[in-house]
Amino acid sequence: MPLPLCDPAVGLRSSASELNLAPSLCLALHTELRGCSQAWSSPPFSVKRMPKLQGFEFWSHTLGAARHVVAPMVDQSELAWRLLSRRHGAQLCYTPMLHAQVFVRDANYRKENLYCEVCPEDRPLIVQFCANDPEVFVQAALLAQDYCDAIDLNLGCPQMIAKRGHYGAFLQEEWDLLQRMILLAHERLSVPVTCKIRVFPEIDKTVRYAQMLEKAGCQLLTVHGRTKEQKGPLAGAASWEHIKAVRKAVAIPVFANGNIQCLQDVERCIQDTGVQGVMSAEGNLHNPALFEGRSPAVWELAEEYLDIVRQHPCPLSYVRAHLFKLWHHTLQVHQHLREELAKVKTLDGIAAVSQALKLQCQANMSRQEEGVRPSGDLPFFHWICQPYIRPGPKEESRENSGGRSKRALEEEAGSVDGLSKNKQKKQLRNPHKTFDPSLKPKYAKCDQCGNPKGNRCVFNLCRGCCKKRAFRETADCPGHGLLFKTKLEKSLAWKGTQPGLQEPQQVGPGAPGSFSEVMGSALA
User: Fold this and answer.
1) Per-residue CA distances from 419 to 186, 308, 342 (Å)
2) Catalytic residue check, 157
3) Which of 7, 335, 449, 488 is the 20 to 30 Å CA partner of 111?
4) What pLDDT does 414 receive?
C-alpha cells in the first residue's frame, strides 16, 4: 500500500493506522521523502502548523499578547540584537527590512538574512519585506513563512532609497495596489499578514487608510505617528492622536510607534491611545533594557551584546553601529576613542575599544564629586544608557545665519574651523587633502557641453561629444580609445580576402546598410 504524501498535520494519523506504523516513524518517512531540494524551505523546528489565526486571536495566542516590541531596523535588528532585547523585556521582534525581489532570486540573501539566523529563542518573530509587486511579495513571503509567525509589509520607510525603489511610505497613495498585495498574501500564506504604516497629515485620511488595509486582510497594524516627511532633523514629535483614532476605527490589534524613550512612555502611550502594544526603534538602540524600566551602565549591555555576537556572528558593520549607539554620549566626551572605534576591523578590536571606554568611564566615576549633576541636558551621566534626543533644525536667528545654508557658511569661512564634521574626518585621514575651492585644479572645458575635455582628444571635446563626432565622421580618436575608422578599414580588408562575399557597395553615411546605420543601431 503506498504511503500518502500529504500534509503531516492532516494525513499521518490515517497512514499510521493503515500501515500499522508508529506516527513518529511515518513523520520521519514523510520528512525523508520530501527530499533535500526542500531542505532550506521546510519548517526549521516542527512540521505541523496550527490553523492560521486572525486579528486578536493571532495577537493573544501566537504573539503571546505582546506589548513590548522591537521595531524592524535595517542592519540593526539582526539576531544577536533581538536576543539581547528579548533578555531585557522585549516580547516580540521584527527582522530587518528585507527586499522581496532579492529574497526571491538570491539563495545566498535568504541564507544570510533569515535561514542561517534560525534560533528557538527568537520567537515570536515577524519577517518584514519591502515590495511593490503582489506576486513578488507573495513569493518572498512563501519562502519565509516557515521561519516566522507573520509576514509584515513595510509601508513606513521614508528614506530616499525607498522613494527611488518605489516602496515603503511612498506607496501610501496607491491604495488599489496595496489592496491587491495584502489580499493575495492573506489568501495564499499560512501565516497572517501585517502592515507597518506612517500617518497622513489628516486624521480622517489616516483612518480610511487603516480601514482599507484591514478590509484587504491585514491582521495587525503598526502605526508610526509621523508623516513620511518627518524624518532626520525634521522628525519632530509623533502624533498619538492619529494612532488613537486608528485604534478606535479598526477591529484588529494596533501597535504604536513614536515618542518612546523609557518604560513610562510605553505605559502612557498604551493608556492614552488604547493600543495593544508599543514598538521602539531609536529608544531600543540606545537602551536595550528600556522595556525592563532600567538604565544600566553602558558597558554592561555592550559586553553582553558582544558575547551574543560571538555565538551568533553578524557583519562587523552591524556591531560597530550598535556600539556607536550604546556609547553615543560617552563618545562625545572621549573623541579619540570614537576615531578608534571607527577604524578597528575585527570583533576583538571593537571589544578592546569598548573596554577602553569602560575604563575611562570608571575613572570618571571615581573622580566624581557627590552632588554633581550631569553636564548638558542629559538626565544621567554619559556612562548610563539613556535616550538620545535628535536635535531639530536650527532656527534662522541662531548663529545669525540670515537664512544661509550650512554649505554656504562653510565656503565663506574658508578655513578648517568652517569645515563640516565629515570633511574634518576626511582631512584627518589625509592631512594633504584640501577643500578650498580656489585650490581645486582647473580643467579645460569641452566646446560643446561644458564638461572637462580630454587632454589628448583630437577634437578637443569630452569623451561623450568626441564619440558622437568620431562616429558621425568615421574617424579615430586615440586619446579616447575610439577607433571607428580603423575598425571599418579592417572590416573592409577582411571582406576583400573572402572570395564568396559580395563586395560592399559604396554608399553614403545615411544609406540603408551603411556603416553609420549599423553602428548607430549598436550605439542605440
Assistant:
1) 53, 39, 20
2) yes
3) 7
4) 43
Q: What is the pLDDT of residues 39-68, one digit of tens each?
A: 444 444 443 456 789 999 999 999 999 999
| φ and ψ at residue 243, rounded to 5 degrees | -65, -40
Q: Say how many C-beta atoms besides its own lie within 10 A of residue 124's C-beta.
A: 16
> Are the CB atoms for 330 and 357 separated by under 8 Å?
yes
User: In Å, what is the CA distance from 392 to each residue of 136, 231, 235, 282, 402?
Assistant: 38, 10, 8, 16, 18
**Mean pLDDT (the chain, rounded):** 83
From residue 389, alpha-carbon distances to 232, 261, 266, 316, 380 in Å are 11, 9, 17, 26, 13
Contact call for residues 255 and 279 (beta carbons, < 8 A): yes
For 109, residues 6+ apart whose C-beta sits below 8 A from its C-beta are 98, 99, 102, 103
Q: Which secondary-structure segment (H or E) carries 33?
A: helix 23-33
What nine digits make up the cell of 380?
A: 544621567
Q: Of the residues 26, 93, 130, 157, which is catalytic?
A: 157
Count Cβ atoms below 10 Å from residue 310 Cβ, excluding itself: 11
Rounded-to-integer distance, Cα 218 and Cα 192, Å: 8
- For residues 258 and 435, give the distance between their C-alpha atoms in angstroms, rounded to a whole number: 39
Angle ∠(88,94,100) on CA atoms, nearest 5: 160
Question: What interhelical angle do 263-273 and 240-249 show, nearest 10?
Answer: 50
d(CA 118, CA 229): 36
- Determine the distance from the C-alpha atom of residue 222 to the mean position of all C-alpha atoms in its chain, rounded to a whole number: 17
For the stretch 211-245, pLDDT in tens is 999 999 999 999 999 999 998 888 889 999 999 99
